[in-house]
Write a structure and sequence with these properties.
Elements: H1 9-20, H2 30-39, H3 44-50, H4 52-73, H5 89-112, H6 118-136, H7 145-175, H8 178-189, H9 193-210, H10 213-230, H11 235-249, H12 257-266, H13 270-293, H14 296-304
Helix pairs in contact: 1-12, 1-13, 2-10, 2-11, 3-14, 4-13, 4-14, 5-6, 7-10, 8-10, 9-10, 9-11, 10-11, 11-13
């Protein structure tokens, strides 16, 4: 569609890959649930609410960057020979998306009002998604359901194995005093909290380049959480910082999952897309710094909802 509109192919992939990671900050997010498990006593509902403003912030930075680059390079003009799109088409697309968007309202509203727990919300989300895909949109035939259920079971088993292994690793690290050692090393690096937070961000950005998000959260949360607690950061704020860092890693070489998938679908190369994605990386870094050093973005909504004091 973007190619038909006259956008550059590599630019299309760069926009899509970087924007795709924003969904991990906006609730409901599996990564927030994983962090809540790894941190131990963090409210999933509070994490969901905490991600709203940071997600909007990152999305706004990406949109502004995309708009500036599109205007500068003249993107967005109708490609030669392409049919003009009906004027009502965007409105029809938005209307068609309403049932899907209601899932977020259903899950978050139910959790906040105490109608069901996060675990029960997952089951309700599955039932609602089944209703949408099979009955309303009719995008999945009945014959495909057994294969989908099998693949879901395999994916769930992998996640549970990761959680089990990381729990054992966390216990070993606690016994070996690794969190205390890392904390002492970071606190000894500087007495300035800004320097320590910048160091933690740099570490997490590098980790995100080489490690998938779920194992990274499970491994580094018990190591870094004691450090940020000493700096006076809340567990909720650090969770958003952690996820925001790892989101950037998902679209950063050499192991950027979103980048590789985008290049595969867009039929282009990592090298070409990376060049086009550099402005978006910078925009996401600006958003990351605001999220890190302005706690209001992460804590305002949970406090307004009565989930934090």
């Amino acid at each position: 569609e973007m190619n038909r509109k006259g956008y550059n192919r590599e630019f299309n992939v760069a926009v899509t890959a970087t924007a795709a990671t924003t969904g991990l900050l906006i609730p409901p997010s599996n990564s927030m649930i994983v962090y809540s498990v790894a941190a131990g006593s963090v409210s999933i509902a509070a994490m969901f609410m905490a991600g709203i403003l940071p997600g909007i912030l990152v999305g706004a930075c990406i949109m502004i960057t995309a708009a500036v680059l599109s205007i500068r390079h003249g993107y967005g003009k109708q490609a030669p020979g392409a049919d003009a799109e009906p004027r009502l088409h965007p409105l029809l697309v938005c209307w068609r998306a309403v049932p899907s968007l209601l899932m977020m309202v259903l899950i978050i509203g139910g959790i906040l009002r105490g109608v069901f727990t996060a675990t029960e919300a997952a089951a309700i989300a599955v039932a609602y998604a089944f209703l949408l895909c099979v009955v309303i949109y009719r995008e999945i035939p009945w014959k495909d359901l057994p294969g989908i259920c099998l693949q879901t079971g395999i994916t769930t088993a992998v996640v549970m194995l990761l959680i089990g292994a990381s729990s054992a690793m966390s216990w070993i690290m606690t016994v070996a005093n690794i969190p205390q050692t890392v904390s002492a090393a970071l606190m000894g690096l500087s007495e300035n909290p800004v320097v320590i937070l910048l160091t933690i961000n740099a570490l997490l950005l590098v980790v995100g380049m080489f490690m998938d998000m779920t194992p990274a959260i499970l491994i580094f949360t018990p190591i870094l959480l004691p450090v940020v607690r000493q700096l006076g950061l809340s567990d909720i704020h650090f969770g958003i910082i952690l996820i925001a860092n790892l989101c950037i890693g998902l679209c950063t070489p050499p192991v950027g999952t979103c980048l590789f998938i985008g290049c595969g679908v867009g039929k282009t190369t990592i090298a070409k897309v990376t060049v086009k994605a550099l402005p978006f990386f910078l925009a996401m870094l600006v958003a990351l710094m605001l999220i890190t050093f302005v706690p209001w973005f992460s804590l305002a909504v949970p406090k307004a909802c009565g989930l934090l004091k």
